Amino acid sequence: MTDCCNGASATCGSEETQPCPSCHRPGKPVARKTVEALVQPELRDGLKGKAYCFCETPTCPLVYYSDDGARVLKQQLRVRVGLKETDDPIPLCYCYGITERMIRDEIKQIGRSMASARIRAEVRAGNCRCEVENPSGRCCLGEVIQAEKQADQVTR
Fold it and tell me: Which of 3.30.110.40, 3.30.450.20, 1.10.10.1100, 3.10.129.10 would CATH assign to domain 82-155?
C-alpha cells in the first residue's frame, strides 16, 4: 500500500480528541481496521468501538479506547507495543521487524544504521502496511529515524 505513511484518517470520538480513561491524556485517532488487525483473534468479535483512539502514554496499560466504552489493554494484542515496552526486543518497525537493538547493533557493526533507508525503499515500492501492522496505525519512519539518531549518539 503506497499511501499508508501519509497519516491516519480515522477520527477519535468527536471532533475533540477523547482523553484516555486510564491516564487521562489525549489519544491519537486510529482506524478500526488497525485495532481489528492487532487484537488477539479470540477478542475480535467483542470489539464494539466505532472510532478508536491510541494511547501513547508509555506507562498506561490501555492501548486503544473509544468514547462508547471499548477498551483494549496491552496484553490483549498479538504484538508488543514498542512505546509501552522497556525490555528487548522493543519494536520500532512492525512491517519489517526492526527493533531498537537491531539499530544499535548495526551502528556498532558498520558505523551507521540503514533501517530508515530500507523502510523508505519499501514505502516507495508500495510494501508498507503500517495501518494494520503498527499499533499506532501510523508510519514508523519518524520513530526509526529518532532511534537511529539516539543510538548513534550513544555509540560515539
Answer: 1.10.10.1100
